[in-house]
Write a structure and sequence with these properties.
It contains ten helices and no strands. By secondary structure, it is mainly α.
Length: 228
Amino acid sequence: MIRKTLKYFLLLFCVPAAIFIGTRVFKDKQYAFISITIAILSCVGFFLTFEKKKSSTRKLILISVMTALSVGGRFLFTLVPGFKPVTAFVVITAIHFGSEAGFLCGSFSALISNMYFGQGPWTPFQMLTWGMIGFVAGIFSKKLKTNRLLLYLYGAFAGVVYSLLMDVWSVLWIDNTFNAALYLVTLTASLPYTAIYAVSNVIFLFLLSRPIGEKLERIKKKYALDEQ
């Protein structure tokens, strides 16, 4: 119970606090501090569930593979704005390995892929947003596993939430403070991107969730990987 409370505290309180403190204290270098802090906290949150046995090591390897696939998928669809499989891989990871694994996959997918796409003040927001999408998916993993319609609806919802949260960063970057009127304008301007991303999440979940999920479950059963 103590470990569970600490994990939730780290991911739901400490990560947003790191973003707030970083923007106030570190100024031009804020994104570097915040990105590193989120990466460390997401690792700590996961390793609180980590046990010293082979099954835990295998689980970490599988989560690393899923993160690599997520990053590779983002590279593969570089030329198609908004059409990305990142959320699908993050959600699949979360529903098969738990909330902490989903947060880890989401945050590191943003951090690692941005080594190619470019690091900047947007990176912490992407890490937090994709991480939280995975975290929430893990909470509802049992329902998302068994109800395909609910899984697709969550994918669409995640696409909208991603855009809503990233537009907060856009407004802060443009106006250096949160401006509600500018936020509404930004939301309106990004509607086509939001729609494409939401639809792409559904498409990728439709194509990938069953084949990848079945393989992950077989591996979990074969090596007795306990679900978190």
